[in-house]
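tool=predict chain=A
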Amino acid sequence: YNEYKSYLRMAEEPPEADVLSVLIATDNHVGYLESDLIRGKDSFITFEEILQHASQQDADIVLLGGDLFHDNKPSRQTVHKVTTLLRKYCFGDKPVQVEFLSDQRENFHTSDFENVNYEDPNLNVGIPVFSIHGNHDDPSGSYAMFGYDIVVMHVTL
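tool=predict ok
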């Protein structure tokens, strides 16, 4: 029991250098009812609160676990708002604490970019955002892109 108790104490207080802070958010459905006069801003406000929290809590990365967008072809307004929020909260001088170890050419073979954006010397990413699509924003069309692919292109402009 004493060995186990000692282990628990260590697990509760790891050295700061060994801690990776990850904010996980799923099913944001940004753009849901965006034309509704009463609820139209709800999804945007919520997404901003998520990114604010990541910034305030000094998260090392944000993981979006699907359905960032409500539709697989989000409106221009929705893409613009999400792009604006990502630039506001995820760009900055904070050093990135993660390293992408897999072969990026293999993982991003459908992308026009050769590496993850936080390794691009022309960008100043402080909080990397990793995302997968969900059933609402699944890739479609001849390029098999989903809304987040378009946002990434705009964030890098």
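The mean pLDDT is 80. The chain is about 35% helix and 5% strand.
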